[in-house]
Amino acid sequence: MTDHHCILVLADQLDWSNPALAEARPGIDTIVMAEVAEEANYVRHNRHKIVLLFSAMRHFAEDIQARGFSLRYFYLHDKLPSLAAAAHQALRETGATRLRLCSPGEYRLSSEMDAWADRFGLPVDVLEDTRFLCSLAEFNRWASGKKQLRMEYFYREMRKRHQLLLDQGDPVGGRWNYDAENRVGWRNQQPIPPRPDIAPDKMTREVIEEVTRAFPDNPGDLSQFRLAVTHEDAADQFEWFCQVALPSFGTFQDALVEESPWVFHSLISMYLNCGLLAPLVVCQRVENAWRDGHCSLAAAEGFIRQVLGWREYVRGIYWLHMPEYAQRNTFSATRPLPEFFWTAKTDLRCLQVALSQSLDLGYAHHIQRLMVIGNFALLAGLDVKAVCEWYLAVYVDAYEWVELPNTAGMALYADHGTMASKPYAASGKYIQKQGNHCKQCRYNPGKVTGEEACPYNSLYWHFIDRHKDVLKTNARMGLILGNWRKRAADEKAAIVGWADELLTKL
Ligand SMILES: Cc1cc2nc3c(=O)[nH]c(=O)nc-3n(C[C@H](O)[C@H](O)[C@H](O)COP(=O)(O)OP(=O)(O)OC[C@H]3O[C@@H](n4cnc5c(N)ncnc54)[C@H](O)[C@@H]3O)c2cc1C
Ligand code: SF4
Predict the structure, then answer these.
(1) Could you tell me where in the chain the CATH 1.25.40.80 domains are found?
(2) Which ligand is nearest to the CA of 362?
(3) In which residue ranges of the chain is CATH 3.40.50.620 found?
(4) How does 332-352 read in b/e, with b if 16+ C-beta sit within 10 Å?
């Protein structure tokens, strides 16, 4: 008799290239999916994320059944206490002899699963996640023996390996990176096109109701839920981006805009991260858009670098350094997270806009996450673990493999330069240069001390002053430290004293 297997599909593994599914046998194996409250709530996840995943799971489950597979689906109202409990129950019910699944994206779950075979008393095959463009073994090989793991060099190898934007082995246009052309600030240069709306279907509306009842205290305004929950709708959303927003994506990639949470960004991280879109497909589509003359090389390269470079690189860094990576804290930052991170009630306009859209929609673009919220947390010395937990909770696209290196490494420099060559610390002048928030703000980005002064300014110098001993070991910080050193002692004392007052009020 043929052995019957259970195949567990996690909420962020919703595609047929999932290696466990690719080998599944219709009519023989049982596919298992579970909506587990513990997984949805081990941090206070944004309700947009929970709805996206549960609704996408339910839609994918229909596809699974339509392809002739038996399915054991545990709903939220079945109140399964954990994924392990769901897997165990399905194994018992079906009499399966083996459990198979694609490896999870988080260290926490991965180490929990190490004990499953003993617990269930049968073999558990955790297969390598082949949905990424760089395997962990390849990343480790690339990293091995290198003193510094700079993304740029990794990215060049990935371009060659996947034959993207190449001309006989060389980068098209003669350069690997067009980042310098992608930093234009926002001065209302052009209209921002409205995003096509996806009205939630019946299944999604039901999930919205259940999630609203089950997670009353989580962030997320579900009246604004407009995310795709199927492969087709996610592909349509991405196609809209390629046709309408991509030509302006590069130019305004770093822009901060009062009027739009999304600007010209693609809004696809949440789909890539749960399997509704595939990374190579989106990169190839964008390369073709450039080859067809639809967008500039800077726009196409800027986009492909994010997906092929950054996304794969942060995953490699995560698995290379976990679990120790989560303990790092270069600047011994321990200040508790201010309450306004959960309410968005702050009079710093840039921060208020970024926080409220993060809480309400589960989305903020990269510069908001890095240079507005992350920069504030870095300058104010907010507790690294609390900040990372907040990022993991609020964003629809947040999974620890991608959130942790970005937050602890890139935004907070807690990894002492594994990710970034210097801390991404900036004063209010940077935020003013990149956008139009300051015009709506009660603070003045030109002032450093006093009631009207932009808080980012004195906090910036406070950060430089209090960490000068750590920062002086970084050659890229030399100029700024020199500027600070040269200032008159009473001027420095006034700035540091003012920042101290602000920090006390936090
Ligand atoms: C502090 C901080 C925390 C972050 N947390 C997450 C997270 O939990 N999940 C997540 O997917 N991204 C995270 N990012 C990366 C990035 O901000 C988001 O991927 C991006 O804002 C998603 O919006 P978009 O799809 O419109 O991206 P676009 O700007 O349109 O970029 C296209 C795609 O490139 C990829 N990408 C871009 N930058 C990065 C990056 N630094 N790391 C990994 N992928 C990248 C994403 O898949 C994204 O969809 C974080 C960045 C910072 C600074
Ligand atoms: S003045 Fe400062 S706090 Fe206000 S929006 Fe500008 S940078 Fe942000």
Answers:
(1) 136-321
(2) 1
(3) 5-127
(4) ebeeebbeebbebebebbbbb
Q: Is the pLDDT of residue 1 over 60?
A: no
Query: Does residue 192 have a pLDDT over 70?
Result: yes
Is residue 395 helix, strand or coil? coil
In CATH terms, is domain 340-505 a member of 1.10.579.10? yes
Check: CB of residue 425 under 8 Å from CB of residue 379: yes
Each residue of 393-405: pLDDT tens digit?
999 999 999 999 9
CB distance 413 to ligand 1 below 6 Å: no
Ligand 1 centre from 92 Cα, in Å? 40
Alpha helices in 11-135 (DSSP H): 19-22, 37-41, 47-66, 83-94, 107-113, 116-120
Nearest protein Cα to ligand 2, atom 6: 438
CATH class of 5-127: alpha beta
Residue nearest to atom 5 of ligand 2 (CA): 438
Structure tokens of 317? 């860094």
From 458, 469, 467, select the one nearest 500 (Cα to Cα).
Answer: 458
pTM of the model: 0.97
Whose tokens are 């540091």? That residue is 496
Listed in sequence order, the residues at least 6 apart from 504 whose beta carbon sits closer than 8 Å to its beta carbon are none
Q: At what angle do helices 279-291 and 231-240 cross, to 10 degrees?
A: 30
Tell me the Cα Rg of the chain: 24
CATH class of 136-321: mainly alpha
Q: Which atom of ligand 2 is closest in space to residue 431's alpha carbon?
A: 7
Least Cα distance to 178 among 39, 304, 315, 24 occurs for: 304
Q: What is the pLDDT of residues 235-290, one digit of tens each?
A: 999 999 999 999 999 899 999 999 999 999 999 999 999 999 999 999 999 999 99
pLDDT value at position 2?
Answer: 67
